[in-house]
Amino acid sequence: MDRAHGTTAPPSSGGTGGPGGSTGTAGSAGSSGSPRRGTPAGSGRRSLRPRSALTAAVFLLPALVLLGALVVYPIGYSVQRSFFDKSGDSFAGLGNYVTLFTDSTIRTAIRNNLIWVVVAPTVATALGLIFAVLTERVRWGTAFKLVVFMPMAVSMLAAGIIFRLVYEQDPDRGVANAVWVGVHDTFAESSSFPRARPLPAHPLKAAGGGAYETKAPVRAGRPALLPLVGVAPAQMPKDARPARTPADSPHGEISGVAWLDFTRGGGGRPNAVDPKELGLDGLRIEAVKDGRVVARTTAAADGTFRLPAAADGAVLRLPASNFREQYDGVAWLGPTLVTPAIIGSYVWMWAGFAMVLIAAGLAGLPRELLEAARVDGANEWQVFRRITVPLLAPVLGVVLVTLMINVLKVFDLVFVIAPGSALDDANVLALQLYRSSFGTGADLGVGSAIAVLLLLLVLPVMAVNIRRMRKESRR
């Protein structure tokens, strides 16, 4: 028939083109699994679906078991337990949740958690953005990023111990107060002899405001004696020398000596300069006549001093600045500043995390947009505010949301850094959960209610994060 129509059948790839070849081709097609007559097309693919679902279930089963045992069951049990009393035998209804908002300690924890959620992620993200942008153009930017990111390798417990020492009140031990006191003493005069005072038998009396003055005016030719006590020998100036009575001053000048009227081991005489008694080096002295200061001087290393003839007949006054308590710095771990101080330690740890993520996003920005803005005349601040930050908005959102979830779980920093006297003032919900559940007089009902409250606080943040991720996947 092919010949009748003038056409030639194409040779079969599986045979010789003859009847035998055609048969071989049909056999090959049949052996390749082509559907039989009466069988709907695609029924083989549908038959594999139950097997694929079973295989997926087998592989997912261990993860589902762990998820149920470690997440679902504890959440369900905590919700159930929050409706029972301390013993767990009697139904308490919403009583435990009412306690969350009536107990002053728990209300302080809730307030502190709000401060943490608002301040800590914002500051850490802002610092990370600044570090990422500023280090992009410097040659040693990689080394700087390494140093800033290094605190992430430190555990929360170790960081808490470090900052507990940093915030020590004693400037000789606490770095923060050592720096603060150094800056303060640079601009404000420090006292020379705190707690120094005269005895009733001394020729000095209180003058008000913490100052002391002589009981009688001083006269030329008579050495003025200014004895004091109340200074520990170890706290005397290093340059102090044994005190001596000065010789008479010529030209009507006033001479005198200010010394520590105390002999170690006893045996000294009051109002007399003994050999082992030291001069009050640096003591400030003023001569006052008719309520007006006519002369000023400072005692030498051996306590001696001189005043001009104008001081004849004046009363010598020792200003209160000589005896003011030394500045010991700021009470970083006091009730007022303990929460900001702990937030500072958290920012120290997590600013590097924010910087690394933002730097990764910054590396992916289209450089042609930044260069086009600069060519159009925009300065660096305008480029940063109107181009860099909007383009980095998704990355900044990821960092901010991640840190917000993280700060809701802060426990060990507060527990380690805050001293016992300020622990209630620095309290947060995660710490209160531990204290209510396992501390003295443990109440698992209240502890479970706190756990549920923490879950409810995390859910909105997670919902925002999931919504943002879905928007990103649709682009």
From TrEMBL:
Keywords: Cell membrane, Membrane, Transmembrane, Transmembrane helix, Transport. Residues 14-24 have a biased composition (Gly residues). The chain crosses the membrane at residues 53-75, 114-134, 146-167, 347-366, 387-408, 444-466. Residues 1-48 are annotated as: Disordered. It is found in: Cell membrane. It comes from the Bacteria. Residues 110-465 form the ABC transmembrane type-1 domain. The keyword Cell membrane applies. This is Integral membrane transporter. It comes from Streptomyces laurentii.
